[in-house]
Amino acid sequence: MAQIIATNPACIGLGLEENTGVVITKGYELEVIGDGIVVVVDGNQCSTDIHEVAPGNPFTIRDLRVHMLAKGQRYTLPIMEQMHV
Q1: Residue 52 exposed, middle or buried by CB count within 10 Å (0-12, 13-18, 19+)
Q2: Which of 61, 66, 73, 82 holds its CA 20 to 30 A away from the CA of 9?
């Protein structure tokens, strides 16, 4: 997921464990439901050299934010103007 977010930093990655989900209200308020963990990967402020290295070579990602949230936890999804053009 980190590689996908590094190449698309305006996106948010969500990883859901079994029997776990999210409810999104107002278009940006996320709440975790179920028994497991939700992993949120936010690359909004990351930097990477992924576009400069040849395929198959290691790349660097800095300042990638990862949140692990359990039932009842909330996360406000970032609103990015460039996504609403």
Answers
A1: exposed
A2: 73
